[in-house]
Specification:
heterodimer, A: alpha/beta, Glutaredoxin, five-stranded mixed sheet, 7 strands, B: alpha+beta, Four Helix Bundle (Hemerythrin (Met), subunit A), 4 domains, six-stranded antiparallel sheet, four-stranded antiparallel sheet, 12% strand
Chain lengths: 178, 651
């Protein structure tokens, strides 16, 4: 085999990867999580902004359903999803906890001032430890955690209104009022 | 009726591209003059027909024909005429049509300017271009017909994406596509040469001006896109390492490598197989860019509709065009032998190092762009890679390149002794050091040390590039356009490095809440938030702030940042208020309404930022001048000075 065959081989390998990417791209949002039906990992993290604001514990919403949204200012898809989150926040149905993942505090503050803040609370996961506990592969990801603290749903990729209505709102027990 | 005419023209054009491919390639293979003679008329016909199709779609936009689905999806009765024309490339279907039309324009140019080339070679070039056109037209007709009707027709359209309603963005796609598609010509020349089996220096000479011109368009297109992102997205940045930006940057990097490699192949007959590979690579990356943007496999701020059927189709065309060319390469490249050697500090060697760095840069961008996709394909979910990947690697590559250019342009072909040139290199480095120190500590004060190095290297490169032309001019020697063009482009690179280094280190940036009458101090400058007024445009309403900029307490200008709500798509757009001065931009953008008349305001002072785009303009200008050099315009007898036995008397 001569070395001039290498380019075509590399190209064909790449084409194979691209093919898998194309074929599988539609179902990436239905990715299952090992955590489904299991208790959400507990965490206690610093809140974004003034250090005096202290920490936030995942126990705070015990007894009511809530949403965890993993994001970062470095993530292009998060920018896409942001207006949807703002609309969702306006509905005021569930508390949304923003997990600012491996990010710069100043960038994150600027992002929220500039684009608006949909989060009930934003916690900082600068080392990505909590994200690992949740099995996050990439931002953005959104989790639905029920009143018992159990992960009921995981959405990978940018949130859309359709997914929100179908998968998140549908899981809110009717007795719960915001 | 008119849209059907356009559709029909597109179908006929498809048939003609098939004829162009068959007659071009088979005609050359069979040495059949009559078959080859059919190629140019097919090219001309294809151009007329795709122009008809474009015209029909423009007509539908201008005349509000909302029964055409594409028009209804991308325009609105309140949209100004200029944007109704630009809406043509506002989404996938029209962009594809534009792609095909620009390709037919390039092919026409090849048909006109290839009369001095050996007939079989020209015929093969057009044949290969015919295959590319055929693929794209088939793609348009099968998966993305822009003339599809919607019955019953809606009363009004859904409007053009507000992001695209901007003059710079309206002309950015055509320029970018012209660059992308132009690399198809270099690719076709490479394929034709491999089919012909004559891979000598003349091939490189014929390819050079085409490649350079395509590269110029791509440079300007990328710069316009970056400029648009700067003032329209409202974040004040100029490059985001977004997948769509990267998709245009990769062919640019590969194209830059190709231009330089072609120079070596033409002058010295070296790197032949490498140059061929780069020609295929540059176009492959253009196609890949189209694939990435159009198939929706990558999530991006530019997000376009995702459709797996389209993705698959583009992927198959990639396999045919790139896979085919690379297979041909694997069969032919081993016959190429370089008959000359060179020393490690000769110009040949420096150009080789430059090529290596540029290819590394391409690979870095490639990995950063495709890693999320590969991750996805392996079932590990979609991710975004941080900018850190790019920003931690790229400055080093850029500095390495600049250093190589500053030294390498003084090296002689083949021979390795820098000897008498080393004085110039040291002198220009000294100029760079002194000027850099003066500029940095005089005007800006201490900043990031990497920026200091960048500024010094940029100045070094400029000084170094100007040595030879100034010397020739003083000795009243002729200055060829090739040298003038090269010098301008290299000065452009120096300017670009200086500008980016300065912006990265000395930008002053604040995000604050301001109410009427409140002032924000930014060094010697201050921003006074005067008031906020409602505004109304043809298809939007919004608010406009008045911000007075003061320097040492004296008002210097007034900025009017806007926030617009586009009615139909209900999206909010930021229009930054910017005043460009010779040494910096005064920038203000509106954030959120905080209530009680207070707004979050992003205020920035960005030194030298306009020079980033000016630099791209210089590079493009340099390329344009170099491509118009005499030796490309002369007939064959004059081109025989280089050893080219195969083509002597071929015309």
């Amino acid at each position: 085999m001569n070395r001039f065959v290498l380019p075509v081989i590399i190209f064909l390998l790449l084409a194979g990867v691209l093919y898998v990417g194309v074929v599988h791209s539609p179902d990436k949002s239905t990715m299952v999580s090992a955590l489904l039906g299991k208790p959400a990992p507990a965490f206690e993290l610093r809140m974004l902004g003034d250090p005096a604001r202290g920490t936030f514990s995942s126990q705070r919403f015990a007894g009511r359903p809530w949403v965890l949204n993993v994001w970062g200012t470095w993530c292009a898809a998060c920018r896409d999803e942001h207006p949807v989150l703002l609309d969702i926040a306006k509905q005021n149905r569930l508390p949304i906890v923003g997990l600012d993942w491996r990010d710069d505090d100043e960038d994150a503050m600027r992002w929220l001032t500039q684009l608006g803040n949909p989060y009930t609370v934003v916690v900082v996961d600068s080392e990505g430890r909590t994200a690992i506990d949740f099995g996050v592969y990439g931002a953005p990801e959104t989790f639905f955690i029920d009143a018992e603290g159990v992960v009921q749903y995981r959405h990978v990729g940018a949130m859309t209104m359709e997914v929100w209505e179908r998968e998140f709102v549908g899981r809110i027990p009717h007795s719960v009022s915001p | 009726m008119i849209p059907e005419l356009g559709h029909f023209a597109l179908i006929l054009a498809l048939v003609l591209t098939a004829a162009q491919a068959v007659f071009g390639l088979a005609g050359a293979h069979r040495r059949d003059d009559r078959w080859q003679a059919a190629v140019r008329p097919a090219v001309a016909g294809q151009f007329v027909l795709t122009s008809t199709a474009i015209g029909a779609l423009v007509w539908s936009f201008v005349n509000f024909d909302f029964s055409v689905l594409y028009v209804a999806s991308n325009s609105n009765s309140a949209l100004p005429t200029f944007y109704r024309v630009a809406a043509l490339w506002g989404a996938h279907e029209g962009s594809l049509l534009l792609w095909a039309w620009i390709l037919s324009l390039w092919t026409l140019a090849v048909a006109v300017f290839s009369r001095n080339l050996p007939p079989t070679f020209a015929s093969r070039v057009m044949g290969v271009l015919g295959i590319v056109s055929f693929g794209f037209l088939l793609f348009a007709l099968v998966t993305s017909n822009p003339f599809e009707r919607i019955i019953p027709s809606p009363a009004d359209g859904r409007d053009l994406n507000p992001v695209l309603q901007d003059p710079a963005l309206a002309i950015h796609p055509p320029l970018l596509y012209t660059g992308y598609v132009g690399f198809a010509v270099a690719y076709a020349f490479a394929c034709a040469a491999m089919l012909e089996g004559k891979l000598d220096q003349t091939w490189a000479r014929w390819t050079r001006p085409w490649t350079t011109i395509a590269w110029c368009f791509l440079s300007v297109g990328i710069a316009l896109g970056s400029w648009w992102a700067y003032y329209e997205l409202g974040w004040g940045g100029y490059w985001f390492w977004d997948p769509v930006e990267n998709a245009s940057f990769m062919p640019w990097l590969a194209g830059t490598a190709l231009i330089h490699s072609l120079a070596v192949t033409e002058k010295r007959g070296l790197f032949k197989s490498w140059t061929l590979l780069l020609a295929i690579l540059a176009f492959s990356l253009s196609l890949l860019g189209t694939f990435l943007v159009r198939s929706g496999v990558l999530v991006s701020v530019h997000s376009f509709a995702a459709d797996p059927a389209r993705g698959k189709f583009i992927l198959w065309s990639l396999v045919v065009m790139i896979g085919g060319a690379l297979t041909l390469y694997s069969l032919r490249a081993h016959t190429l032998k370089s008959n000359a050697g060179f020393e490690g500090t000769s110009r040949d060697a420096f150009l080789l190092y430059n090529n290596i760095l540029l290819v590394i840069a391409t690979v870095v961008v490639f990995i950063g762009t495709l890693a999320p996709l590969v991750n996805d394909a392996l079932g590990m979910g979609s991710i975004s890679i941080g900018q850190g990947w790019f920003t931690s690697i790229f400055p080093w590559i850029a500095l390495g390149l600049v250093g190589l250019v500053a030294v390498g342009i003084h090296a002689a072909w083949k021979r390795g002794r820098l000897g008498e040139s080393s004085r110039r290199i040291w002198l220009s480095l000294a100029i760079g050091l002194v000027l850099g120190a003066i500029v940095v500590y005089g005007a800006y004060g201490p900043g990031k040390w990497l920026s200091l190095v960048g500024i010094i290297f940029g100045l070094w490169l400029i000084a170094s590039s100007l040595f030879d032309p100034i010397d020739r001019w003083r000795r009243k020697l002729t200055l060829s356009r090739a040298i003038v063009g090269m010098t301008i482009a290299h000065v452009g690179l120096g300017v670009c490095v200086i500008a980016i280094s300065t912006v990265e280190s000395y930008t002053v940036e604040r995000d604050v809440a301001l109410g009427p009458g409140e002032t924000l101090a930014l060094g010697r400058y201050a921003y006074r938030f005067e008031k906020i007024d409602p505004v109304e445009g043809p298809n939007y309403d919004g608010v406009r702030a008045q911000v007075t900029v003061l320097r040492d307490g004296q008002p210097v200008t007034v900025l009017y940042p806007e926030k617009r709500n586009y009615w139909v798509q209900r999206s909010t757009m930021t229009e930054a208020g910017i005043e460009s001065r010779w040494n910096m931009d005064l920038f203000a953008a509106l954030g959120e309404d905080l209530g009680a008349g207070r707004w979050s305001v992003r205020a920035q002072l960005r030194p030298l930022i306009d020079y980033v785009w000016l630099a791209a303009g210089l590079m493009a200008l340099g390329g344009g001048i170099a491509a118009s050099d005499r030796r490309y315009r002369l007939k064959n007898e004059a081109t025989e000075t280089a050893p080219a036995p195969n083509t002597a008397g071929a015309t």
